[in-house]
Automatic annotation (TrEMBL):
GO terms for molecular function: ATP binding; ATP hydrolysis activity. It comes from the Bacteria. Gene3D superfamilies: P-loop containing nucleotide triphosphate hydrolases. It holds the Pfam family ABC_tran. Keywords: ATP-binding, Nucleotide-binding, Transport. InterPro entries: AAA+_ATPase, ABC_transporter-like_ATP-bd, ABC_Transporter_VariousFunc, P-loop_NTPase. It comes from Pseudoalteromonas peptidolytica F12-50-A1. Residues 6-232 form the ABC transporter domain. This is ABC-2 type transport system ATP-binding protein.
Length: 277
């Protein structure tokens, strides 16, 4: 049995005594592409930074590539790709020189992949990094994080500045990378349609807790939104959220006997909005 690439076990984090993450349990296995969703300030960046040991949890255990997140060795870090929300660095360099320097740190660098993406994302190798647009800088950061085919890729809103064409190209490559190489990807995003298109798994964080997590297709089967006026709520199903209008249930297959098509979720955005009513 392969061990998880990343595992959060009962992780808590507070800033100045204020709880930001509560009892987080998450697992990223090889081949998984997990989309992390949550409102602004929900704790997504905090969770991703804890995974990499950039900040420490208060309690709980995080295992990243079989190591404690707070003691990642240089060899371990070579197997991880990370793109922060606001990538920066290499400001005085030309794109080609920045990539050459970055490449020198990674023996597994795949120059073919680098070239494919440079042309697909239409980056000019002779341009100064400091003159690139926000989206182009984000593209460069993605190329740098993925060209050494990391085993674990952690991306904080990786495509927020990319145009729809670049976004689609990048997202499909991301999925292929995970499937082809058995890598795992954990990425945060507010673009639910992107998450729906490429993620195999999702986790929705609300009030510092993982409210929903699992395989996306299974969750679409299991989760039902039932108006409070309905006479036949799902017996035995777990209530995920209740608003004045409706109740969101997560049902196992045995309590789906009474399912009605009109209670199915139509897309991830609908579920996300419903959970935050
Ligand atoms: N270093 C810090 N010191 C104090 N509070 C912090 C710190 N970093 C984050 N926070 C707080 O923790 C909470 C979660 O922040 P985080 O950046 O993880 O949210 P997020 O889900 O990534 O938000 P967004 O979608 O807006 O990027 C916020 O209330 C934020 O103000």
């Amino acid at each position: 049995m392969t061990s998880p690439l990343l595992e959060f076990d009962q992780v808590n984090k507070q800033f100045a005594g204020k709880a930001v993450l509560n009892n987080i349990n998450l697992i990223i296995e090889p081949g998984m592409v997990m989309g992390l969703l949550g409102r602004n300030g929900a704790g997504k960046t905090t969770l991703l930074r804890i995974a990499l040991g950039l900040i420490s949890q208060n309690t709980g255990v995080v295992r990243c590539l079989d190591s404690d997140n707070r003691q990642l060795s240089p060899a371990c870090k070579q197997r991880i790709g990370y793109v922060p929300q606001q990538p920066c660095g290499y400001q005085g360099f030309k794109v080609n020189d920045a990539i050459a320097l970055h490449r020198s740190f990674y023996p597994n660098w795949d120059s073919t992949l680098e070239q494919t993406w440079l042309s697909r994302l239409e980056l000019d190798g002779n341009a100064l990094v400091s003159n690139l647009s926000g989206g182009q800088q984000q593209s460069l950061a993605l190329i740098m994080a993925m060209s050494y085919r990391p085993q674990l890729l952690i991306l904080d809103e990786p495509v927020s500045s990319l145009d729809p064409i670049a976004r689609r190209a990048f997202m499909s490559d991301l999925f292929e990378l995970a499937l082809d190489t058995g890598s795992g990807v954990l990425f945060s995003s507010h673009i639910t349609s992107d998450v729906e298109r490429i993620a195999s798994h999702i986790a929705i964080i609300k009030d510092g807790e993982v409210l929903v997590s699992g395989e996306l297709d299974s969750l679409k089967e299991q989760i039902k939104i039932v108006p409070n006026s309905a006479s036949d709520p799902l017996p035995g199903a777990t209530i995920l959220h209740q608003s004045q209008r409706s109740t969101v249930y997560q049902a196992s297959s045995c309590n789906l006997r009474s399912k009605k098509p009109e209670h199915n979720i139509t897309n991830l955005e609908q579920l996300f909005v419903e959970l935050h009513q």
